[in-house]
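Case study B.
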Amino acid sequence: MLKIRLLVAALAMTGSLSASAAESLPASAPAPENNPTTAEKVSLGKMLYHDPRLSSTGTVACASCHNTMLGGEDNRPNSMGVNGQTGGRSAPTVWNAAFNAVQFWDGRAASLEEQAAGPVTNPIEMGMKSWDDVVARLKTIEGYQDAFEKAFGKDSISKDNATKAIAAYERTLITPNSAYDKYVEGNTNAMTEQQVRGMKKAVEIGCTSCHSGPAFNGAGMFQKFPVNSNGYFEAQYHFQKDLGRAEVTKSDADKHFWKVPTLRNVALTAPYFHNGSVKTLDRAVWLMAKLQLNKELSDAEVADIVAFLNALSGEFPTQSMPHLPGTPGKAFN
Amino acid sequence: MLKIRLLVAALAMTGSLSASAAESLPASAPAPENNPTTAEKVSLGKMLYHDPRLSSTGTVACASCHNTMLGGEDNRPNSMGVNGQTGGRSAPTVWNAAFNAVQFWDGRAASLEEQAAGPVTNPIEMGMKSWDDVVARLKTIEGYQDAFEKAFGKDSISKDNATKAIAAYERTLITPNSAYDKYVEGNTNAMTEQQVRGMKKAVEIGCTSCHSGPAFNGAGMFQKFPVNSNGYFEAQYHFQKDLGRAEVTKSDADKHFWKVPTLRNVALTAPYFHNGSVKTLDRAVWLMAKLQLNKELSDAEVADIVAFLNALSGEFPTQSMPHLPGTPGKAFN
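Model:
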């Protein structure tokens, strides 16, 4: 326990970090008052989340881009929606998304429920014309009538309930027991010396000023990215092509502001940044220090921080595959 | 038991069906001598089968078109591969494919192992340039090095072993205990009166001459389809656009010949036929009788046979989701 106290003290001393940064990941996520988590909702939500019939072509599920068998996204620079279309942003991980105060890179959704409604009718993502069409399709599938009834009562297939169920399922997607979690819970052998060194460096240079809290996601903070850029970096990575939060708010003050993304499982979610333009975590760490903190890290410092970030990869819970209900004798649409 | 014996006798009386048609689905599938099924191969095969990184874009897994959460295919007329491309044929179900003597609609693969190699490098399916590229990519993923080692020994990542593992996994995808299976095992209440009537009608008109054996797949038989067509049907369904087995053998004698597909879970695999041109099972049954057997079924007869075919939907085993290994800190390709 002594080392832990020392760590917390060390973290607090930086002035830019509260002691809460040394908290381990909670085992469960809070649910909003109007959508308490139940086993029936989670079961239905898991079906909907993995069902490609929520897309116009029947080929793209939530899980296609936010892959629950991988690090919660698709390892692509940007995702591929219906008919091979791609957008400009990289899919954020669904793992531990329940701990984000807002959703989407630009924070335009205030909840998982609100987020879940978006991609389904986005023409380059899942491509459904409207949620009315989704609801009509789900109503033709007897197994969904039953699953909604169990979760929400009779004749309850609706956009509102579908997104509530998906959000309830997503709240179960938590990856506890990373090396870091074990370390802050008192097992001082859980992290290597290099990882501890990397953690201290990350705190010292200021990474955790923004990537704060147990999910290292700034608890709803928006930050400008990049802060200190120039033509050289822009030509390589095109970070400033996308206005970020300003695309939503239409306010100049929000130009290039982004939700602070979680660092949990970051080693598993390459490529990096909002546009997925950086292929490796080494480079991402170096760029963050340079562009955000105006620090040029040595290779050794980068390696230490990367080692620490690998200590944030958690345990992925074993999940059963949902059995998706069929439409006996009929094509789904 | 009396009823069963009567049934078997009735089936045998038709002259076109051996008593073996009344066998229930075996609980396990035979494996070839050079690829005995092991838990380690099945575990690796399940990972590979669900991993979209086996495609050029990282978006299409075996499971994308042969969906293990659905009826083993995608409910589309024809599947959608990388970059939104589509082909001319409908994905066959992976469930019980282990009982097919040959694979693909045109039977061009003699085994599940051979089949598994095909789509990965098909430019409109998974789009990898070569299996060498697949192997090179898998070798960059540490978790796959371990999983191959457990299944096949040290440094064993290869096309041969990858397809063996996928085939070993597919041999576990069996759906036993359908109403029909329970019926032929002695539970005469397992099928409804209508289902029994439909079964007898299917035998009587000759469906089971080709759809024979416990998987109702003709055990490797090729048959011409359509046999008795005309311009009216061709204009609607374009069945003859595709030469079928002749595309492989280049022999005129094989024009419009197809592997007899399984009827197991057929109620879950709409739309129907090699080109997925028929949306409902009712219509598929009517067309089969008309085009293959030159019989015009009444609506009641169609309904009875469809009821029977629904009795062939089996129990889908509960499966855990594989956890796909990441490439820490690097984009997968």
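Residues 2-27+177-310 of chain B form a domain with the Cytochrome Bc1 Complex; Chain D, domain 2 fold (CATH 1.10.760.10). The remaining cases will be described in the next quarterly update.
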